[in-house]
Design goal:
By secondary structure, the chain is of the alpha+beta class. The protein has 13 helices and 23 strands. The chain has helices at 2-10, 32-51, 67-73, 75-78, 144-149, 151-158, 204-221, 269-278, 304-315, 355-368, 381-391, 401-406, 427-434, and strands at 14-16, 28-30, 56-58, 80-85, 92-94, 117-120, 123-126, 136-139, 164-173, 188-198, 229-233, 245-253, 256-267, 284-286, 291-293, 296-303, 316-322, 328-334, 345-349, 374-378, 395-399, 408-413, 419-423. It is globular. It starts with a helix and ends with a helix. It binds glycyl-adenosine-5'-phosphate. Glycyl-adenosine-5'-phosphate binds at residues 142, 144, 174, 176, 185-186, 189, 191, 193, 259-262, 301-303, 305-306.
Amino acid sequence: MEEITALAKRRGFIFQSSEIYGGINGLWDYGPLGAVLKQNVKRAWWRDTVELRDDVVAFDSSIIMHPLVWKASGHLDAFHDVMIDCKVCKHRFRADHLKDRSQCPDCGSKDSFTEPRNFNLMMRTSIGPMEDTSSVAYLRPETAQGIFVNFKNIYQSARKRPPFGVAQIGKSFRNEITPGNFTFRVREFEQAELEYFVPDDGADMETFRAWVERRKNWYASYGIASERLRFYELTDSERPHYAKAGIDVEYLFPWGWGELESIAHRGTYDLDAHMALSGKDLRFFDEAAKAHYTPLLIESSAGMDRTALTFLIDAYERERSVDPNGKETERTVLRFHPFIAPVQVAIFSLARNKPELVERATSIEAALRPEFRTQYDEGNIGQLYRRQDEIGTPFCVTVDYETMDDGSVTLRSRDSMQQERVPGDQLNELLRERLR
Ligand code: GAP
């Protein structure tokens, strides 16, 4: 994990937020490559969940909503962790993370803990110029509620009838007591949530299982190792009382299994809660049956920061090999899927000080840029390959003196490290084929 964290900083994936002021716990910034990596993860989710489905519509709700939204959802009254402090070293723990309470695991003091206290995880803010209680508001702890309170607006304007889904990707905030494990548990993060509404016609569990299957295929199609991924079925006692089924998608991180996504059958709980508090009818009107009903809800909620971190960790490899001269070499490589890789093709000029090579290489890069995520570089080819391996670029193209004679370039693959001569003017076609 230390190696990955160091690489993430060195190559511009992830930086500590506000680093020059000493950083701030549980908050991170995405660097030039990390921003693209996370964007690609979100695009991959959006493509599969929204664009390839004719029954899912897009949504984007505000981060701050009416405080009563959080009353109805239960977050105001029940969205808390139990915390406990060491009176000696002041370290704060989540009570459920402390196995043995006789001795502080941080400073070793005996019987030094405070009584456990509830701690609401919602971040508070205030709206308007007066900081009195009437202006208290919250940064959303999940994006889902924006969809529930708009349910009627959405189905009426989009002319959808259950079964249909609403998808949203956006920031959520939780004042975690103990953020940690790099970007795994943070206080500001992005969620990709699908709320899929179905009629109560007996096919709901089948739809639930179909979404689980679809999400399974999604992780597999972007190359996440199946042996490090599991779909853990929550038992009756682990699920909230209103949920009919629940599956946690978990990845085996260097520190153990951690949740990436939760898929849940939530019944009518969320719409019921908003109808009860707002007094508004959010039920669906079935024209054919001339009757109102409250649809059941199947939810898939994935953390995009955790998923981006998973892609980074899963792709990471320190590879030892023997070069043609019998010398043992080692390289660090990120084996990103081509859709996820921040840079897809790097184009090099063999020499820095040869204008004709530089010109040819930059013009090849310009021709590839509209179609692929490209990067131009020049200098020592061995070093350039190592750098691109480290950021997970699937292909490198080198322009050399031979290119000036016959137009051919060297195409080098990240995974096999094989190099081949190919015609420079056929690169778009070739790469289109290989980057699929
Ligand atoms: N609407 C359902 C919901 O929010 P959740 O299990 O609380 O469910 C869904 O959250 C996902 O959001 C988690 O599986 C995780 O990937 C992500 N997530 C939750 N808290 C997080 C945190 N503090 N840091 C990073 N990601 C988080």
